[in-house]
Design goal:
Elements lengths: L7 H24 L10 H4 E4 L4 E4 L1 H31 L4 H15 L3 H20 L1 H6 L3 H10 L6 H29 L2 H9 L4 H31 L11 H12 L2 H34 L1
Antiparallel strand pairs: 1-2
Helix pairs in contact: 3-4, 3-8, 3-10, 3-11, 4-8, 5-8, 8-10, 9-10, 10-12, 11-12
Length: about 290
């Protein structure tokens, strides 16, 4: 691993950054007459449950876990959608290319907040009712509801949770589509010709020759897209999904601990995304060694 060298300019920048943070804290405390109450934050992270006899997650950690669940589910659905649309974008069929291109351009040229509102009201008010999603969840066996509470969401909030996950999957799927398309098109044309010379059909060429090579190239950007999904999941707070940003807003309105809560929320987001960035970098390095 390459050693990190800290130069004089880095030290000066760190001192300036620390001075800026210190000045900001001084302005908040002295000029705005703000009273810091950091001692109140831990109880909003964890609490002792008398019935269960153990420590359990409280508002902020519950929001963090919901954010992780939404991000994982949205990434899985977005990856499947992105793979299908990426194949459509590279298809020889003009109709399939039109579908893939139309989907990407439609989603990428809409503000994500508008997409959230459109899909949430459309899904909750019409599709979920037609499919009977709420009734299906309500009548599910107790063991299945227990699994849903751990893996997805409370049964009473399942429709909003599913709507949020699908909306983010639709949004992120457009970017994953372009990643898949770029990965397939990055495979040298000679690979297609060699597979064709062996008598393979187009699907066999894709499955056995092109996609295995493309996947090794798109794994790093896909990891980066998952990090982006975590950050983008905060937009579903507008439809009252109890993810981290929503929990932070609710808690701030109840306690008026504005700076303490939002700094804590920012640190929780940073701890997730920074950890994943480090893992993605290690994965990228390992794949580069394997391919090199």
């Amino acid at each position: 691993m390459r050693k990190v060298r800290i130069g004089l300019l880095d030290i000066i920048l760190l001192i300036l950054l620390a001075a800026g943070v210190g000045y900001l804290a001084y302005v908040v405390e002295a000029r705005l007459e703000y009273t810091w109450r950091w001692e109140a934050i831990p109880k909003y992270l964890v609490r002792y449950d008398q019935e269960q006899g153990r420590w359990v997650a409280n508002f902020l950690l519950e929001g963090l876990f919901t954010t992780i669940r939404i991000s994982i589910l949205a990434t899985i659905m977005g990856s499947v959608l992105g793979l299908l649309m990426g194949l459509a974008r590279t298809s020889r069929s003009g109709f399939l290319r039109l579908i893939g291109t139309g989907y990407v351009e439609f989603v990428r040229n809409l503000p994500p907040l508008v997409l959230v509102f459109i899909f949430y009201f459309f899904f909750s008010d019409y599709i979920a009712q037609v499919l009977g999603v709420e009734q299906l969840v309500r009548n599910a066996p107790e063991w299945l509801q227990s699994v849903m509470r751990v893996v997805l969401a409370e049964p009473s909030r399942f429709t909003a949770f599913l709507s949020a996950a699908i909306t983010i999957a639709l949004y992120e799927g457009a970017f994953i589509t372009e990643i898949v398309r770029a990965g397939i098109q990055s495979v040298e044309h000679g690979q297609w010709e060699a597979a064709h010379a062996l008598g393979l059909s187009r699907w066999q060429r894709l499955r056995h020759v092109i996609l295995p090579q493309a996947f090794t190239r798109i794994v790093p950007p896909l990891a980066g897209q998952f990090i982006s999904t975590i950050k983008d999941s905060s937009i579903v707070s507008v439809i009252s999904v109890s993810e981290l940003t929503f929990q932070g807003m609710e808690l701030m309105a109840a306690t008026y601990l504005t700076f303490e809560i939002w700094i804590t929320v920012a640190l929780l987001y940073f701890s997730m995304t920074f950890t994943l960035s480090m893992l993605a970098r290690r994965l990228e390095t390992r794949l580069a060694r394997k391919l090199g």
